[in-house]
Write a structure and sequence with these properties.
With 260 residues, this protein is α/β, with parallel strands linked by helices. The chain has 11 helices and 7 strands. The protein has one domain: 3-Layer(aba) Sandwich (Rossmann fold), CATH 3.40.50.300. A 7-stranded mixed sheet has the order 3-4-2-5-1-6-7, with helices on both faces.
């Protein structure tokens, strides 16, 4: 059964897209068939895989009723990994969704045929860095929310905000089955007390949720997208690739993902 993961955070710069792209690649490398859906009008996940921002290539037309999501799927060049890319027109979707009936369920509805096909073991939704209509739609469509959390003092404050939104989604019966699938600690620097303290605090508060795989603060992880490559292609033996491979294995085990 296809499982849908939303990777969301209302803050930018916390490793959300880096995690979406490299987790998708990591799962694909381990034999899981993955569809990555880029919902951000900046199209960072699209360009991070070396793909162009093509006019008409995003979900915009699908969410406004002019096409099907299946038509927008393209291969990435990485075995087992496809993508629905994004481009600038996705910025207009936020306001247009509000004008539609059941506006929070639009993404869930357009992804339903893909999910039903059983082609993918996992669908990963990379959200914009804000809790707007697209992010809310991703939470309504997902089985599990994966939260990327930077190792900084304000991490807990940001976490509480997104947990409140999840509660609202459940209570409004928009997606009562949505779970907090896990917390990915990013930009971890083992040399600093701050990183260790933040991880300890979050782990104490949510002992079952924090993934053991810590994503390091890494120049290579920051450089890879500008070359249109995942960390596995750009620096396959580096700390970033090792961390995302470890995270991929944890995700496969935790959610019992199966090779297609």
């Amino acid at each position: 059964m296809t499982k849908i993961f939303s990777i969301a955070n209302q803050k930018g710069g916390v490793g959300k897209t880096t995690t979406a792209v490299n987790l998708a690649c990591g799962l694909a490398r381990r034999g899981i068939s993955v569809l990555l859906v880029d919902l951000d009008s900046q199209a960072n996940a699209t360009s991070a895989l070396g793909l162009p921002k093509t006019e008409g290539g995003s979900l915009y037309g699908v969410l406004t009723g002019d096409a099907s999501a299946k038509e927008k799927i393209i291969p990435t060049g990485t075995p087992n990994l496809d993508i629905i890319p994004s481009e600038v027109d996705m910025a207009a979707v936020e306001s247009e969704l509000l004008q539609r009936e059941n506006y929070l369920s639009q993404l869930k509805n357009v992804l339903a045929p893909i999910r039903k096909s059983g082609k993918y073991g996992a669908i990963i939704l990379d959200c914009p860095p804000a809790l707007g209509m697209l992010s809310m739609n991703s939470l309504a469509a997902a089985d599990h929310l994966l939260i990327t959390l930077q190792c900084e003092y304000l991490a807990m404050e940001g976490l509480s905000q997104i947990l409140n939104v999840v509660d609202q989604i459940r209570e409004a019966k928009v997606n009562p089955g949505l779970t907090i699938g896990g917390i990915v600690m990013t930009m971890f620097d083992v040399r600093t007390n701050l990183s260790r303290q933040v991880v300890a605090e979050i782990s104490k508060a949510f002992p079952q949720l924090v993934f053991k795989s810590m994503i390091p603060r890494s120049i290579r992880l920051g450089e890879a997208p500008s070359h249109g490559k995942s960390i596995f292609e750009y620096d396959p033996n580096g700390s970033g690739a090792l961390a995302y491979d470890s995270l991929s294995k944890e995700v496969i085990r935790r959610f019992e993902l199966k090779k297609q």
